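Trying the structure run again after the queue cleared.
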Amino acid sequence: MITVAYVGFGVSVREYHIPYVEDDTRIKVKYVYRREQDIAQNEEYEPFYPEITFVSDFNRVLKDEEVNLVVVSAPDEFHVSYAKQILNAGKHALIEKPFSKTAKEATEVFELAREKGLICMPNQNRRFDADFMAVREVLDSGKLG
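Done. Tokens:
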């Protein structure tokens, strides 16, 4: 079983990530972490997820041995620092785009993942959007050529 924690609770997590995995018996969403100052923004949605523990202490997520994947859907400026903390805690990481602000930062994160024997990758969640699916259908049908 993959036990997941999310960093952030914005539209991406509520509308794309959690609905995509919540019925998959191979995946358990255990935590949503938000910084204390971000809680009020989306607190009203918490009752829709009674099986998820909402926390404002990131160390609780990092120290939980059951969690093996952390998905970062936080503001861009935090992506690299969260990724490094996650990897240093021995967990796999999926990071929303943009992954980092520079190629140098991305290289540092990927090297850390390699050193730790972990997977860290950028997320591209748009491939299942209706617009992208329509384009794929047209391309696959050969109607453009």
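The first helix runs from residue 11 to 21. Worth checking whether this holds up in the mutant runs.
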